[in-house]
Here is the input.
Amino acid sequence: MPGMARLLTLLGIETSCDETAAAVIRLSPDGDVQILSEKVHTQLEEHAPYLGVVPEIAARAHAELADQTVAAAMADSGLAYSDLDAVAATSGPGLIGGVLVGMMTGKAIAQAAGKPFLAVNHLEGHALSPRLTHDCPFPYLLLLVSGGHCQFLEVRGLGDYRRLGSTIDDAAGEAFDKTAKLLGLGFPGGPAVERIGAAGDPKAIHFPRPLLNRPGLDMSFAGLKTAVARAAEAEDLTETRMADICASFQAAIVDVLSEKAHRALENFNPGDGAGKRFVVAGGVASNEAIRSGLEKVAENSGAVLIAPPMRHCTDNAAMIALAGAERLAGGLENEAGDLGAGARPRWPLDEAAAKSDPAYSTGRRGAKA
Here is the structure.
């Protein structure tokens, strides 16, 4: 990697939502990544009774789990804190209580060990996550699709991101969770909808494909929730009906993402004769139907689809450590680190676009970025 002449070893901490995670990674000068340890504590049992993530419960769980999760990751790595080159932690976007826990934990370790602290954008972690396990040089097209985010970005280089399109309301993962809640499928909703929909007919019910025929890459998924509610009320919810609703709902999501991805790839020019690389990252990228649909789009567009392993699609600390390591290697951190950095509930990757053309405005609630 340009500008780096030695191995860098970083501890990463992730606490933006309902996973408390820590990882230690080593980044070599040629960009190879060695994951020395990974630890993740989920909070599914704590939030399941409420059919969604409760911010106060999440923050308390992070406070209880952060120290032991970091200690376990360090023990598995076989390293001491003095062996680290820096500590990185998610500093936003996310649930502010959880983000604060991770940041304070990371800052305390960094200060005690005399190491730099790097405040990492959670979305940048997802954007760089395929580089943990794949040869994925810049530039590439990114579909970041998760419970809180759904957007197309051109990843030109480290810290250089251009937003091409975004959801104007619910993210795709949020639509999955709301559908599951409407149908009484429990929490987390996405995997439940996918599992039950596997036995259904994706053509049984024609759900709307919002903004499918509108030019551009913006998306909308809020209306699908209403359509699912009407379908559920129209007939008795037998097992067959439930499976058909889930399958048809998922097919609508796949169609929208696939069409928008096709348009994005048609207009994406990596330059210098480089091949097109299409990265899909975020929790919803673990959905098999969505991956399959995007693989077909990439193949038809002459692009290579790159997706992180399932464990790196969902929130994880290895991607945070990598983002910190790449920033350290590229000289994009402050000389003394980011000990003065604050937690940010919203932190768009393309801040210029977020200011000039926000995905949300008065009268419409948008994604966090």
User: Anything to note?
Assistant: The first strand starts at residue 8 and ends at 14.
